[in-house]
Amino acid sequence: MLINASSSSTLTSPAHSPVQVIHVPCDFCGSTKRHYYIEKIRDYDLDWPDTFNVAICDNCGVMFPDPRPTDQDIFVYYPPNYNPFNPRQVTGGLARVKAFFDRRKALKVLRYVGPKEKIVDVGCSWGGFLAMLKTLGDWELSGIDTDPGSIEYARNVLKLNVRVESFEAFPEDTLYDCVIMKYTLDHLPSPAKAFEKLARIIRPGGYFVLQIPNNDSWEAAILKRYWHGWEIPRHMIYLTPQTTAAYAKKYGFTVKEVEHELNPNNWIWGLRYWALDHARFLVPFCDIKNPFLLAVLTPIAALAKFFKKSGRTEYILQRNK
Fold first, then answer.
1. Coil, strand, or helix at residue 283?
2. pTM for this one?
């Protein structure tokens, strides 16, 4: 179907004040031709009744929410209880597992970035990954995030060099050796404009470390509307290894490494979302701390990783010299 990219409407919800929603052209190719892949997906993360559609561009195959909230109204969907803003979102054994994988990812950065080089974490949240990097290398570290509470924690508790700022407002007067975006690019209004800016602030030969959901995954195919990676309407785009490589090539980057992550949590979140619609009494059972679900779903997640069909991927992209 052909969409009028300038059209807008108002969405009303009992969960919040009215918001404006708009149709936009495909971020990658600019086409206004698309069809709906899944319609009326609910905001399961917040358990709000608002529904949105996932569209596929008929020209290039990139997926995105349609319509979506305006840039001014999207912040309604980032309330203070939004999970990534919470530094204690995982505790105990799960916190140790998360620290193990964060350390592993940080050590990967060591292979590409030398001592004293400049690293900025865009969307650093409460600073957990920056704090891990701080223990492993002598780098010039900094970070930005739009959530004041997260930045206050990172600055005052973890003693990190961070500030409240959007990537759109981020200055371009410094060249960085490495920019990190852990599940941030898909939250930005235009990944294309983000890639353009990245090409301006990363030195030739420097690196872009990108973590992002993969909708060409077993999770997305099986869980469908209940896949955690949609996180609609906060995610502005849904990428695969193929479409990520296309963005990289278009904006002057080369894919150096792709890793499919071992992650049973997305499967558990999917079960939780299904339960929210069909069996609310099972919601407490569908928890990432449930040892039974972890035991059952971790082997499935491991197989997905082995066959390169995991729902979470990490890329090392190098800016062309």
1. coil
2. 0.92
